[in-house]
Amino acid sequence: MAEDGKIASLVAELLKELGEDVQREGLDKTPERVEKALRYFTAGYGQDVKDVLNGAMFVEEYDEMVIVKDIDFFSLCEHHLIPFFGRCHVAYMPNRKIVGLSKIPRLVEMFSRRLQVQERLTTQIANTLNEALQPRGVAVVTEAIHLCMLMRGVDRTRKRSRRPCSGRSATGPRPGPSSWS
Ligand SMILES: [Zn+2]
Predict the structure, then answer these.
(1) pTM of the predicted model, to two decimals?
(2) Which residues surround ligand 1, an ion (CB under 5 A)?
(3) Does residue 165 have an active-site annotation?
(4) What residues contact residue 63 under an 8 Å CB cut-off, 6+ apart?
(5) 146 in catalytic set
(6) CATH of 48-180, one of 2.70.98.10, 3.40.50.10490, 3.30.1130.10, 3.40.50.620
(7) CA angle 93, 95, 98 (to 5 degrees)
(8) How many whole angstroms from 81 Cα to the centroid of ligand 1?
(9) What is the pLDDT of residues 37-56, one digit of tens each?
(10) pLDDT in tens, 144-171
(11) Helix, coil or strand: residue 60
């Protein structure tokens, strides 16, 4: 799928179409830079949940809520290929299985480095933890600023849009998003 230089030549075409002179000094290396950046921003396609979580799940008799707050994420909205970014907060109530804490930010990173909408990003993180850990409950909240909305003037409030998602297994209380804002 990934053919080196293919995106760069498409970007050169794009710049011409925008009326730019791709030979001018400032744009000389731009197509290659854009290709490199886009491959980095979408590197999550080359990873899956197993790559991130395997070997980091443990059985532990711990029944307090596990919370990881303020995980920075950067993603591209799939409608405009323009960034949306913000923070993600994750909480779960373990049911004998826990995951290494550093793996949660990596999971957020994997899903955010794909073309996304904020709702799906939030749900994928929650569902993945639900499936991997079968916790008594899981809650994920993302807060994001969408540059596609700000830059198009659709929204000038700079408010972060908030997307909560929670789920639970058969037993136990459901930690609602309101419990940790
Ligand atoms: Zn958008």
Answers:
(1) 0.87
(2) 77, 79-80, 148
(3) no
(4) 93, 94
(5) yes
(6) 3.30.1130.10
(7) 80
(8) 7
(9) 999 999 999 999 999 998 89
(10) 999 999 998 887 776 778 888 887 654 4
(11) coil
